Amino acid sequence: MIEKLIYVFEKEKEALKILLNLLEQQHEYLTKEDVFALDAIVKKIENANKDVASLEMERRSITGEQSIREIVKNFGNENLDLLYREIQHLLHELKTQKDSNDILIRQGLGFTTQILDFINPSGKTPKTYNSYGKVKR
Question: Which residues form a coiled coil (predicted)?
Answer without folding.
Answer: 13-65
